[in-house]
Amino acid sequence: MHTITLREGADLDGFRQAVRRLAAARTAPDKVLWSVGAPSLFGDDATPASDNGAPIFLPQAVGQLIETVVCHSDPERYALLYRLVWRVLNGERALLDQHADPLVHRLERLDKAVRRDIHKMHAFLRFRALPPAPPGPDGGERYIAWFEPDHHIVEAVAPFFVERFESMVWTILTPKGSLHWDRQRLITGPPAERPDALAHDRFADDRFAEGWQRYYESTFNPARVNPTAMRAEMPRKYWANMPETAAIPALVRSAPARVQAMLEAEAAIPRRRMPEKAVAAMARQAPESLAELNRLIQRSEPLVPGATQAVLGEGPEGAAIAIVGEQPGDQEDREGRPFVGPAGQLLTAALEEAGIDRGGLYLTNAVKHFKFVQRGKRRIHQSPTAGEVKHYRWWLMTELGFVRPRLVVTLGATAALALTGRPVAVLRERGPMAFDGWNGFVTVHPSYLLRLPGEEERRRAQAEFVADLRRASALA
Amino acid sequence: MDDALIEKLGILADAAKYDASCASSGAKPRRGGKEGLGSTTGAGICHAYTPDGRCVSLLKILLTNHCLFDCVYCINRRSSNVRRARFTVEEVVTLTLGFYKRNCIEGLFLSSGIIRSPDHTMEQMMLVARTLRRDHGFAGYIHLKTIPEASPWLIEQAGLWADRLSINLELPSDHSLKAFAPEKNGGTIKAVMGQVNERIVEAKEERRRFSPAGQSTQLIVGADDATDRSVLETSGTLYQRYGLRRVYYSAFSPIPEASSVLPVKPPPLQRENRLYQADWLLRYYGFTVEEIASGGEGGMLDLGIDPKLAWALKNRERFPVDVNRADREMLLRVPGLGARAVDKILSARRHTRLRMEDLGRLSSGLRRARPFLIAADYHPVGGLTDRLDLRQRLVTPSSQLSLF
């Protein structure tokens, strides 16, 4: 008979070492006696057993099950797990799929109990703020909690609390071990006793605990009282460490009377009369001027983060022609004005050539924020997606509604998409087009001209662009 | 946190509690790190349960319970005499962070009465979410109630910060909505659901963040004369057309300061429970609204038994089902067998012929499933499913929802 003595608590390392040795020696489960009693891992930095056996290969699901079940407080857990390992190594690789097998069924129940315990600790543990410590680098906020888990899960819950409360300094004390996090390191400590500060005065001097109880009382609906359902999910054993549960007896006791009072009360006569003016004013919520709309646009967040500022439209309200581009570029984003970068300069030149006064036009973009990827020092323009264009559409349409141009000229595919709501093949469909509610004209974006490779090609395309602008001007 | 703030919290939590939605699930994993605060886990956590059996997962409050609307079923309607209060944006932020740091909540569920205008109200709510995320690096869960009358851009801005958006339809038919909520409009509500759904789908395709946990809604049951069938038909449409994650059913419950238009007596809470069960059958068990409704009478579900058992009793010719042979679809229709038990059966029967003893380890609902099953060592004698008293034999007196 082999006797294996493991540490108190969840001794995964010790169990692993033992299993490797036992498996190597082909020792059957009924020849092994498992006991627990070696000093706890906590407060003891001895290294694990040194005679490393060779690793054994187990299906992933088995490994996961072992990791959880070793946390269980059942003294039989190691014996059950070794029986599982033995059978898996001896021809039953898919044993865990056999949910009806008594051993598998029992281990599944242990696994479930541990998971539930972990989940409940994540859920029901409450931190209390401690009075500020002597000034430290972290502003002095410190939190403490006391919790009594059923199983050896203190280390298993640590990642959750570190991840969630990484920016706080906190201590969790339990009878099965303790955790301390100082924003840098996690220190595991020995089992603790319930600190006096948490045992007595329920709210100590943390008024949030008091506020939380008020919240708990107020969110309860007396017309639906159902303490059985509550206890199924939040058994009594957890109540002692949750400040809000102090309210439960009174809430349950007073519920029937509160409901009766509601049913007996006659429908009340409204105290106030109809606030006609306010109700009517409600309907007038849309911005009433272009300036007001622009303030909204400036206040709102870019759909894709990064832009310095929203770039608003520019030009006189009532302009005969509104020109709609794609989105601000690098330079526009810095200066906060539309069409001032290379493509904008090209547009200005083309307008001059066509004999159109830029100052008389309304210039704007379909999308109001610059979207880019950073490459070293350069910010490389990224085309807006169809979804982004749609997001900005309401603003664009409202904006045009204030400007009321006779003709809307779209530059490039994005602007055409914004106005028509469908993808437009700009080169094929350039020219006059009816937009939803507007006389429109589709042409290319000047940045397209910048991208053309050959000098000759570019000259021709520019001439066509100028011709388009002339036609549009004539239409308006 | 001073007395005045605690007092306001009491009023504005009381005013928000009639919204049944509480889930904090579905968000993509996220963490606040050393500079921020919090994390989302995907599945969500219930941090407490109140004596009504409901979970407390999010800090569920209204920004204000002042309201210009006059929806009769609502305690906060403008003509109600309820006590009023109003939080500032900063106060909501303080409360959320304070409770979150004490591990009381997963995050915030913010709704509001309509003050000044729908746009103004929506903007204030959006500002709360934005302040939490941007100024405090808050990585917990945020659920924002969407005000359908607000401008589209505001709803879309809200989606940038929230994990979930929801718009309450409240009443299943346009006709009831008109009668009970004069400022609301079914068409507007559905248009916004469509808009939000479109943005969610796009954002997913374009790998942007927009209300990643989807959208949900709530229907009030028992305030109007809608049948269960029409409620479920509405839900079916909402799931299919607008990609909703959840439809919550809230049995109309008596409220203080009730309007005289409403029924005084509330519908049985069991009705809400049956609707949730039916909703589950609709989404995960392959049932159609028609099949579910056929289990009851006159478009109403049977309050005495769950809708799956009700359907099975009216379709006895399809039972008993052989657990060692039947396909997944049919196993899912056996009363007492849940989806998880069915999956375990399918996996276990590849290795062995299942007997009743095995099934007892695979499912906790075997008592109810027994008459509808055939196992290796069990065949219901004399056609148990033909017995007229089968219903009585399966029904246990329900004490769960009684007042005491």
From TrEMBL, chain B:
Transmembrane segments: none
Keywords: Iron, Iron-sulfur, Metal-binding, S-adenosyl-L-methionine
Segments forming domain Elp3/MiaA/NifB-like radical SAM core: 57-278
Cofactor field: [4Fe-4S] cluster
Xref: InterPro entries: Aldolase_TIM, DNA_rSAM_put, Elp3/MiaA/NifB-like_rSAM, Endo/Exo/Phosphatase_dom_1, rSAM, rSAM_sf, RuvA_2-like
NCBIfam families noted in UniProt: rSAM_link_UDG
PANTHER family the record matches: ENDONUCLEASE/EXONUCLEASE/PHOSPHATASE FAMILY DOMAIN-CONTAINING PROTEIN 1 (PTHR21180), TYPE II SECRETION SYSTEM PROTEIN K (PTHR21180:SF9)
Annotated protein name in UniProt: DNA modification/repair radical SAM protein
Species of the source: Azospirillum aestuarii
